[in-house]
Specification:
The complex is a heterodimer of chains A (about 700) and B (about 250). Helices cover about 55% and strands about 5% of the residues of chain A. With about 700 residues, chain A is mainly α. Chain A has 4 domains: about 190 residues, Fumarate Reductase Cytochrome B subunit (Up-down Bundle), CATH 1.20.950; about 130 residues, Fumarate Reductase Iron-sulfur Protein, Chain B, domain 2 (Orthogonal Bundle); about 160 residues, 3-Layer(aba) Sandwich (Rossmann fold), CATH 3.40.50; about 110 residues, Rossmann fold (3-Layer(aba) Sandwich). In chain A, the strands form 2 sheets. Chain A has a 5-stranded parallel beta sheet, sandwiched between helices. In chain A, helix 2 packs antiparallel against helix 9 and helix 3 packs across helix 5. The radius of gyration of chain A is 30 Å and the shape is elongated. Chain B is α/β, with parallel strands linked by helices. Chain B has a single domain, classed as Rossmann fold (3-Layer(aba) Sandwich), CATH 3.40.50.620. Chain B has a 9-stranded mixed beta sheet with strand order 9-8-7-10-6-1-4-5-11, sandwiched between helices. A two-stranded antiparallel sheet of chain B has the order 2-3. In chain B, strand 8 and strand 9 form a beta hairpin. The longest helix of chain B is centred in the N-terminal third of the chain and has 17 residues. Chain B is globular, with a radius of gyration of 22 Å. Chain B starts with a strand and ends in a 5-residue tail after the last helix. The chains are: A mainly alpha (about 700), B alpha/beta (about 250).
Amino acid sequence: MTQNVLFLLVLVAALGFFSYNAQRLVRYLTTGHDEHRTDHPWTRLRNVVVIGIGQSKILREPFAGILHASVFWGFVILTLGSIEILARGVFPAFGFDRMLPTPVHGLFLLSQELFAGLVLAAVVVLLYRRLVIKPRRLQGDKVHSGDAVFILSMIAALMVTLFLSATFDRVVEARHAAAFQPISSVLALVFGGVSPGTARSIATASTWSHALLLLAFLNYLPYSKHLHVITSLPNTFFSNTSGPGQVGVMRPMDLEAEGVETFGASDVKDLSWKNLLDGYSCTECGRCTAACPANITGKPLSPRKIVVNVRQRTMEIAPLLKGDRAEAAHAVLAGGEGDDAGGGTVGERVGHRLLDTYITEDELWACTSCRACVQECPVSIDQLDVINELRRNLVLTESRFPEEIQPAFEAMERNGAPWKFQPADRGRWADGLGVTTMAEFAERNERPDVLFWVGCMASFDDRAKKIAVAFARILNAAGIRFAILAQEESCNGDPARRMGNEYLYQMLARQAIETLDRYHVTTIVTTCPHCFHQIGNEYPQLGGHYEVIHHSTYIERLLQQELVPLRTENGKQLVVAYHDSCYLGRYNDVYDAPRETLKRALPVVTVAEPPRNRSRGLCCGAGGGRMWMEERVGKRINVERTEELLGTGADALAVACPFCMTMISDGAKALGSDVPVYDIAEVVAGQLER
Amino acid sequence: MKIAVCIKRVPEMDVRFKIAPSGTSVDETGLKWDMSDFDGYAVEAALQLTEKLGNGEVVVVTVGPDAAQETLRKALSMGVTRAVHLKVDAIPFDNFAIARALATELQGGGYDLILFGKMSIDSSNGAVGPITAELLNLPCVAAASKLEIANGKGTARRELEGAAELLEFPLPAVVSIDEGVARPRYPSLKGIMAAKKKPLEVKPAQLGDLRMTVSTMALPPDRPPGRILGEGVAAVPELVRLLQTEAKVL
């Protein structure tokens, strides 16, 4: 009786303290601005089931994935047992055995023992991995293993006490071995010689230890990066997930809003509550940083650090803003990569901000916006969203950016292309190909089936022009009535948007929408994944609604319908390595169409895959405006990627993006390789009947 | 410190110009317009001077049609305090008349420094600055690549062929700015928004009598296409001969 009252007091204190911390952390989230995150509820629930419960993303890395999934699933199952243990602490008569039919209760007991065993085994391997194997991605500047080792030891202790309590209960009651409690039955045989008195003491001590450890674990979480135990499922629910093409869309931005004087984010108050929840949900596994092309090649960017910095800055400033003056900075939540940035007196803490104090300009400009970090995060954190918002602040509010991108901004504004090309020359690549312009169709009161949006690269760049020519030849051969805008086309604005210049982007995008709508354009095909993503997925934010098809998909459809007259001889037996474009693959889930196109055009081709392919494909280095910036630090990303592609032993490399074309061609040149690089359209055009 | 910067709206130069049917001006259809490049350097120099001193006012002045207000707004978005638009229907090709209109406006304005770009990139005269200085009876440095102000005195550097000239002058003064002083800043959106609320005064330009007009305008002749003489050593004698007799560079 005394024990039960004592336990009740402990339970109330523990749950009370946890609730206090929980409401505090929830309140800190309101430091960020409001954001609607309950649209598409079924997609969100599906993500919770697949990514959260199903652990689909963490299992992308099989070894660590299975270990983590074991612990996670174990915890879900063992929580049922924990409820019984805590309830029994207060009401000794409580028990599932009285509520469930015997066979079902037997299964429950079996599940508890098996999963406790599984968790214990997994934790031991995880500890060995962290302390002995030390995988590279768990290392890093200021990445501490202490917290992880502590939590793993705690979980191990929880499992050990669970087994001890079950074992010695069995010894005390001198029960027979039972099939549904195999582990404790075996252990009870081992400890059968222990006197009933001692056994009773051990059983009681174990039960108490288990319950106290459980409550301690719960209360430790709000002070630890293992807060993800609580936040990762909600985080997955609230993640940016409205399906392919929508996941990589940048936040809409109202530039005309009254009274707004700063744009983008310079501190956590300018981010949304979801960005801050991302901070709570990061357990510093480093999958994002391990996949980051900038980080891989030695640039000063670590997506993990960006998220950890958001959490650190939240823990530094939110208690002050929310009136928790006595709240000490959280040793662990405020720790991690770059943890020497914050802290100090109240005045100093107020004077800090996320940008500059924690995250430097160089980190932000190193990003290629390839989305590998977002793709890899097992709890659906959006690192890129924070980078994009900080870039917007740098450009729109502070006018700070690498000086080499100013000419690109100015050219987009004046020449309608990110280079100083003459707008009047935009259609010249098509000279002599018999391509009709939109204006010519309109003059005849006709409309084409599709508009070929050529994009700046394929309009002006000598190498990329050949892609436009190849695609036009395919369209002509297939008898497609298509048009180009020629000098009426201009940059869609994507480079400006990715470089943070939302103002310039909206100017260009509105102009493009005006042109497209004037001609009542409904269907657009393009050879550029950036144009494809921007016009198809982001123009709706500004009222432009079009069906946009990337040429890889379009050509595949034409080939499938046997509309393209191809030569019948098979040609040479070639091995071609295909390089995935980020804006085609990770942004839009187009992985198969380019590969299928290659196979249909060259029936005897072998498509070789570098180790990093499809959703794991490494960026060419041109995205996020990196095309216009110098790459001064570390190894060149395009060289790294080209090495991987050449490493397959391919006879030729294939791309489906004019920017990748430039980067991979330059990479091959830098490596002294004469392996040719083709766009998939060029491969198909090369097989056209003469 | 009160600084005036005189700027000009000019067409973007990276295009193939056409001559208007009149034969005395360029066809303006489809042209994009912006602040003349050197004027951008002058605005930047003025902003840096006042920022360094921690106080002061930068005023931009232009002579031009209504559309020139876009150019003034751009300067305002860079951080200039206020703007004056001296309105004309079209910019006359008469440096003296433009200088007169500017001098009339600047006279008695209490400016410590009046900056110009070293020349406009469309008509390339480089004359309006020095004429304005003359009309205002002020010292003038043309094409300064470096400008410093201290203790009521200015020092400027001018790049010469293979040498440089360092000049000292009292204020007030007129200085025309060459590139190299400082790269013009890119206006932030914050600056663009703020510029919408900054004062922009419109007055008729006091040009006086126009004494110069354009009689005809013509495009430069097309350059003859390049020729390939051959490959390797065999082509060298012919190349040398042509460089001597035709190109006359050897």
